[in-house]
Amino acid sequence: QVLVVEPWGGSVQAGGTLRLSCAASRILSSINTMGWYRQAPGKERELVASVSSGGITNYADSVKGRFTISRDVAKNTVFPQMNTLKPEDTAVYYCRSYYRGYENWGQGTQVTVSS
Fold first, then answer.
1. 70-85, pLDDT tens digit by residue?
2. Nearest-5° angle of CA 109, CA 113, CA 115?
3. How distant, in Å, are the alpha carbons of 36, 38, 39 from that of 44?
4. How many Cα atoms occupy the beta-carbon half-sphere of 13 within 13 Å?
5. pLDDT at 60 over 90
6. Is there a contact between 5 and 22 (Cβ–Cβ < 8 Å)?
7. Cα separations (Å) of 60 from 24, 65, 98?
8. 41 vs 13, 25, 113, CA distance in Å?
9. Rounded distance between C-alpha atoms, residue 106 and residue 90, angstroms
């Protein structure tokens, strides 16, 4: 089992930047996938970005060119860097780990982008 913790979210104006964080309880190279999802009010949860144990990244079309997911392997932490934020990026963001057939979710953190 891999526990994940997202310590903070934030509020910014449109065009601003936020950097989230997700710390895992195991070394990242052993975790199949670390991902970030989001859920806006009235909408389904959707994948934002993910990174595999080998460092391969994947992004939703809506965030390509604006979001970047990176890793600090020494700290077992994944960082989604969110640039040029838009009001439609407002949502609760969740970190998810997938490890040996099991998934674990963080508690979620609110990101609010005002116009």
1. 999 899 999 999 999 9
2. 165
3. 14, 8, 6
4. 0
5. yes
6. yes
7. 22, 10, 18
8. 19, 29, 14
9. 18
